[in-house]
Amino acid sequence: MVNEERMRKTFTDLVKIYAPSKGEREVCDYLKKELKKLGASRIVEDNDGSINGGNSGNLIATFNGNAEGLPSIALTGHMDCVECCRNIEPVLKDGVFRSKGNTILGGDDKAGVTAILEGLHLMKETYIPHGKITVIFTVQEEIGLFGSRNIEKEYIQDIDFGYTLDADGPAGSVFNAGPSEYTLDFICHGVAAHAGMCPEKGTSAIAMAGLAIAACPNGRIDEETTCNLGTIEGGTAVNIVPDRCAVHGEARSRSTEKLEKVVSQMENAFRKAADKFPEGSLEIKKEKAYDAFLVKESDPALRLFKGACSAAGFPVKVAPSGGGSDANWFGTKGFPSVLVGVGMTDFHTNKENLKEKDLYDAGELVYRIIEAESHFGK
Ligand SMILES: [Zn+2]
Fold it and tell me: Where is the Peptidase M20 dimerisation domain (predicted)?
């Protein structure tokens, strides 16, 4: 059903464009042209074309519905890639796309973007009845979901539900829940002193941090809760009692209660340690990175997805995700979205690969989602 040659061309064209987070300009312009050719009724770039110091806004295109009473859906992907993504040379061999080995492949998320474009091509070519479709290509997903976090609400107001094509697993894989996340900075302040001459005049910020870290919860807490202290920096020289040590971490859970609990345990570990150093002090910075999302199996987004998969013959696999994605922010901003598998494998590494068949199936799936609308009703 899909035009395989067209998909191969779109995918390889897209990954060859250098598109790091904050540097999506060129890929955004490419996609604008494609969406125009596909007949979008409105194409906008939000936030006046720049978010968080980047050179592009989110690209949002609407396709008017051609039938009454059908749901208004969103199809979303992100335009940016993690580094190394300059001069990607995709190679298709034995049915698998890979890079030449010195870069990522960029299937995260150009596989999703390609699948959306192909679904729209098929929609146009087959004249199927459909509701309003909003295509959202976000920026800066990879560095903290800044695109979806800052998306302008006026463009997404009337969306009933959405599909974020940005996950691993073949067509039919879907993630219906994701965690909330806090990022945490613990900054231990001590007092500097010469370590050989007068260490008693000093207070070691590193000793304070060490005590705290030893008492801090770490790793998997339960099936839906994790936490991690990921980086640490402190001290200036071996002969100086360190007056500063900063520890950066995160905690995630699909349960708000459990998240609050593990975060307060982490904070308490640091507070207790700081209490043992009366000359020192502690600073804690805590920020909600994104909220949890949950789309129930009985919700329209998943019911329609299952209908689309059964029409295409793709087995459905519903699972919770442990990571954050644009779907988290779309839920917060007003429409529920599930995270859809497009086959990307070993992403964020130079070994990243994508089965040719998974790419075609993802395109087929997007078309089937649009097609399923008319059997679904609102
Ligand atoms: Zn991604």
Answer: 186-276
